[in-house]
Amino acid sequence: MKTPEKTRCESCIIRQFNALKAFSKEELKVISDNKITKSYKKGEQIFKEGEKLNGVFCVRDGASKLSKLSENGKHQIVKIAKKGEILGQRSVVADEQTNLSATALNDTSMCYIPKQLIIDKINENPEFTRNLLKIMASDLRESDNFIVNMSQHNVKQRIAEALLYLDTNFGTDDEGFLAVNLSREDLANVVGTATESCIRLIAELKKEGFISAKGKKTKILDKRALEDMINGF
């Protein structure tokens, strides 16, 4: 982990995507004076399940996976966090150990904000508190949808959903390949299947002309076909 050049919260547009948008310039100055900017290499762990956090992480750049270790020793990826999202807020607010692990999917930059600052602002700034509650409610809604999809969609449909999610939330590179590419193991851990099954179903999607691949990179060729498959058409 490296410590990159520090940026000021007052001039950072990323805060518009999270609860920090409720802060005044004076409050942002306090946050900026006390935060730590950190960078993580691909595959580097940001925090571990069961860890007691002393602050939250605001994603400046890159993507990270949030995963839960199951009883059989497999990691279930429950979310891919993108730029602007805050990690660890539930643990900090509830004053409990983290329920998930966070790992960088690519080179990632984070702003680490001390816990006490967050707690102080929850007590002092009602708008910030409301924004924080809205984000937590949204996370719960995503969890509900995830459970429904796992029970009602087959593995191939869930792979299609995961690919479309990556396309929608992270976009593509200059060649049209997904900007964030999950390993086959990570993709399997997102959709809840064995890596071997994931590889076989990816090959089927390629054969059907829905996607293409170049090395570890994936390109969606027919979004409509993937959407129709998800909807059972």
Automatic annotation (TrEMBL):
Residues 19-139 form the Cyclic nucleotide-binding domain. It comes from the Bacteria. SMART domains: cNMP, HTH_CRP. One of its GO terms (molecular function) is DNA binding. This is Crp/Fnr family transcriptional regulator. The lineage of its organism: Bacteria, Pseudomonadati, Bacteroidota, Flavobacteriia, Flavobacteriales. It comes from Zunongwangia profunda. Keywords: DNA-binding, Transcription, Transcription regulation. SUPFAM superfamilies: cAMP-binding domain-like, Winged helix' DNA-binding domain. Residues 153-224 form the HTH crp-type domain. InterPro entries: cNMP-bd_dom, cNMP-bd_dom_sf, Env_Response_Regulators, HTH_CRP, RmlC-like_jellyroll, WH-like_DNA-bd_sf, WH_DNA-bd_sf. One of its GO terms (cellular component) is cytosol. PROSITE patterns: CNMP_BINDING_3, HTH_CRP_2.
